[in-house]
Structures are given as C-alpha cells and as structure tokens.
Write the structure tokens for this entry.
Amino acid sequence: MGGLTRTLVASLVAVGATLAGSAAAAAAAPDSVVGCARRCSAPTAPAAVPSGGCSRPDDDLRVRCLFDATGEPEHWVVPPDVSFVHIDAWGAGGGVPAVGFPQARSAGGRGAGISATVDVVGGETLTIAVGARGRPTRDDFAPSDGADRHVVSAAGEDTTVADFAGHWLVAGGGGGAFAAAEGRGWFGVGGAPGSASIRPDRQGFGARIDPLAKVGDGRLRLVYDLFDRDGRPSVVVRPVSGHTDGRRHFTVVFSEPVTGFTAEDVQVDGADPGRFVATVRAATPFDGAHYAITVFVTTPSGTVTAVVPAGVATDDEFSTNTASSATP
C-alpha cells in the first residue's frame, strides 16, 4: 500500500471513529433527541392502553408496543397502575458505501441491541426515539485531480428512551463504512459496532446486550402488563320459574359492568341445533351487569340449559368473564 493510500486510510479511520462516536455524543446531551417516531395503529380501548403501535390479544393483560424509525420522536405516557416495562431496543446500522466495486463493499457497523426490565411510574412521560440507518455521503480528502477519492457512509442513529432528565437508555447506532480508491484500486473499511447503556439511576434488572445487534433502521419493542384491580368478571345465570310455548327465561348477572355480551354468545344445551332462538336484552337497573335471556325452542323436549361461555364479555380493564350455566 502506497504512502498516499496509508495517509488516506488513516484519515478515513479517524472520520469513521468520529461518525461511530456520534451515538455516544448524542447520548451525553440530555436535551438531545435523535429523530425518529413510532408506527401508529390506534386501538379502540380505554386510556389504560395508549394509542399507537400497541396490540393486546383477546383475554390477555399483556400489551405489546412496537416503535419504528419514521423521522419523529414519540412521547409515550406510562398507563396508570403500570410500575415496570420491558424494553428491547436496537440502534440503527451504519451506512454502506454506494460503490459498484465488490472489493469496496464493506459493511456498516451493526446497531447495538439491549434488553431490560425497568421501573416506571404511572403518568410518567417517556420520549422514545428510534434511529434511522446511515446513508452514504461523498467527500474528498485526496488531491483534486480526481485520481483519488472515497465514499463515506454516515453512522446509524441511536435508539433512545428519555425522561425529564435526559436519555436513560441508549442503543447506539453502528459506525458508517467507507470505501476509497487510489487511482483504479478500490478498498473498503467496515464500520464499528454500536454500544449500549442504561443510566445508573434507572438501571433495569435482567439487562442484557443483544450479541446479534441490528442492521438497517433501528427498532424498539415495549411490553407491559395491565393490572386488573378486581379480577375477571364472574357471571351467574338463574332460571326464571315457569315457561310456556317453548319459551325459557333466564336472568344473567355479571359481577361488574361488561360490554360485548350478545345473543350469539349464548349456548343452549338440550335443544337440537337450529331448533332454538335465543335473545339477550339489558335488564334493570340497566347498569351493564344485568341481562335477560329468552330461549325459544321450536321442538321442546326435556331439559334446556342456557350457558354463558367464558370469554364473551369484557370489563373496563380488558378482562373477560368466567363461565356459568343454569337449568330451569
């Protein structure tokens, strides 16, 4: 390798280190937030589940939120009664030089990955920023005769979580790769991997570094459990004495107001399929917990049982009911 090439490589290594170190510099600035944003998909839910990028399977108190790099920060408010969250965060990978020479196609550094379960306070605002991958840029350190040139890629941006005091979780972006040419000979130098950290006053338990890290844009996954203060709603089904013309009547009382309970949810035992019709209506005191069931059996014979299966009605904390049945 010639003297000019060695000088050029030394300069590029210095530039690469500066670019890879931008993640640490961003983390050190409490009032700095690397640009990024969430992917939004607002669910229809009470305030206990925040809007945007969050999902919760039916009959599950665990909420999962996914944040991607789209160019804006996200201010996420911790739901009431949530005291800890689990976070998986990955910084963005460093850029790859846009050159057409195989020997110069070096890889950008991988963005750091970190996972931790951390204490939070209900109502606290967290600023989540997911980094975008580095892009190639062109610059010249060599003489202006055009014979020697290089392409430098930007470092990947950090993925961060911040509170009022600044960043407390940082998954650093990887360093940008670069390619250089001395005359007709191209060569590439890969980017440095990112690093990750959690601020000591918010140190999580079970924290670990992801050894595989991340290429491309960063990502952040946040998981927390809702707290159901009064448990799953129970339900009692009682028969109403007396029935005529094939009609059986039942009262249904849930332990708390629920939504989503309809006639389609009622199961009827003791009647042939297609030989009965069930109706459900709200009953006094019309508080969302009291209902009346009428079952009309077209070919009545024997005992008819009304069944309210588990999981058909939901309370205001997303818990679904237990099962109950009654025989007149």
The chain has two helices and 22 strands. The mean pLDDT is 74.
